Amino acid sequence: MKKTVSTLLAITLCVAIFGLPAAAKADEMKVAERWALGLHANPFAGYAPTVEYWASENMGLSASFSWYYWWSIVGLRGTYLFDTPVHILSMPARPYAGAGAGFISYNAYLGHAQYNSAGLEVFGGLLQPLSDQISVRAELEASSYGLTGRTGYRGFTPLSVGFGIFYHFGHS
Question: Where are the domains of the chain?
Fold first, then answer.
């Protein structure tokens, strides 16, 4: 599983850095009133299939479910997409920031302990359009979960870097 996550992260990073042939002419992506489906991955949460809706050019909501070895996470996020693009290799990437809430279920190896908890996260990153329909993202995320289970309380506060690829429905 770690090798697969690492491979997905490496592929996404290469696409973001070198782009696709269509990306050289990619304009600033318009996201208002569009749905998107994607796959987000990071070393903490593993893979997270994600669905999102952008209510305006700046505000979006998303929901995801991720799993990784002994835990699974359901998350809801609100994202603010900034107006001023950052040009990377002559392509307009848009910075974003947001916050979210999640629920984590952790089952320790061989079922010796089980923890469940709600938690919070803050994140920020860059949305890089490759075309009018496809975008890649790189993000830094900080989470905080207080796991309560049969064996007591454990704090869990990972800091992780994630990458994702998304398909946006409709046209801008």
Answer: 2-168
